[in-house]
Amino acid sequence: MKLYDVYPLFDINIVKGKGCKVWDDKGQEYLDLYGGHAVISIGHCHPHYVEMLTNQLNNLGFYSNSVINKLQVKLAERLGKASGYEDYQFFLINSGAEANENALKLASFTNGRTRVLSIEKAFHGRTSLAVEVTNNPKIIAPINDNGHVTYLPINDLEAWEKELAKGDVCACIIEAIQGVGGCNMVTPEFAQGLQAACKKYGTFLICDEIQCGYGRSGKFFAHQWLGIKPDLITVAKGIGNGFPMGGVLISPEFTPVYGQLGTTFGGNHLACTAALAVLDVFEKENLVQNAHEVGEYLIAQLKELQKRNSHITEVRGRGLMVGAVLDIPHKEVRSKLIHEQHCFTGCAGTNILRILPPLVLTKENVDDFIGRLETVLKEV
Ligand SMILES: Cc1ncc(COP(=O)(O)O)c(C=O)c1O
């Protein structure tokens, strides 16, 4: 049987990782400024993570959600404390798309409505509702195209208020910093105005923190830069440092109903152990603060590079979620970065380099990256 060929691949077989470095099967080392698509938070193969998962696997890999799982309770408590959402409730699933799917379902179960407002260029995943609120017609199958969603421009509060005033909107879903959309940032004025309008018209505000959250922005959640408190917050990616999992933080205004939501694998023992190990390392190594400090340094160094090289036209983002907008397609730049400079980066659109490193990145790593990027930008 062949693989179903949906991924355009770099011809590289990564077999080993440590911190912000990965190695291919020929022993070539790469600097990882991509983190496997913003997934690696505490660094590849962190020893504490490996030890905790190994111990858990030696005790119990999985049991179902029909029995008590104290690891889930512990994780909810720890995450509540770490993120400042101790009064919220936590529901665990297996991926980002599932997290958004369940957040949208909860909103609809609760206010009985079906309409959703989403931001132009948004990406929220590929399952039915998650893909419907994603602003990319190429990945919305006819079966998912059910007319629930209106896409509106980022930060255009008037346009959002006008739609909300119709009184039929179930939820607004936003990324405080857009990922796939290219590191476009929601402003505090827009976020606060949107939150007020949502409250006024009985609409739930969902913040998708799957990419921009979990410490990446330099605060635990990226929306915490904006002075808002959403009703529902979705997480995935960094929560498990590569162990597939997702979650929804649910405000106290929601009352759980037995059987209304559910999953076989969500919140399993290994997943919770991975997430607990991640939170241990966040605390021990001050990774949210590190993302803030090293992120500011990265942005400053990219802006310096912009002065020396006109291929960079804009630098945007926050913490370790940074977009360098180029005046040329990113394709050749990324290809040279990977094949000649041995450095992974992400991308967005046709001309944005998206930098999403593990949160353990150091200033030395930044200097190293800037050197490699400068070499490439001089050549193209
Ligand atoms: C902001 C955002 N939401 C949702 C998702 C979907 O997550 P997953 O691929 O785990 O379903 C992604 C994935 O890239 C994302 O960046």
Automatic annotation (TrEMBL):
Coiled-coil regions listed in the entry: none
Keywords attached to this entry: Aminotransferase, Pyridoxal phosphate, Transferase
InterPro entries assigned: Aminotrans_3, Aminotrans_3_PPA_site, Class-III_PLP-dep_AT, PyrdxlP-dep_Trfase, PyrdxlP-dep_Trfase_major, PyrdxlP-dep_Trfase_small
SUPFAM superfamilies: PLP-dependent transferases
One Gene Ontology MF term: pyridoxal phosphate binding
The protein's required cofactors: pyridoxal 5'-phosphate
PANTHER family assigned: ACETYLORNITHINE AMINOTRANSFERASE, MITOCHONDRIAL (PTHR11986:SF79), AMINOTRANSFERASE CLASS III (PTHR11986)
Sequence similarity: Belongs to the class-III pyridoxal-phosphate-dependent aminotransferase family.
UniProt protein name: Aspartate aminotransferase family protein
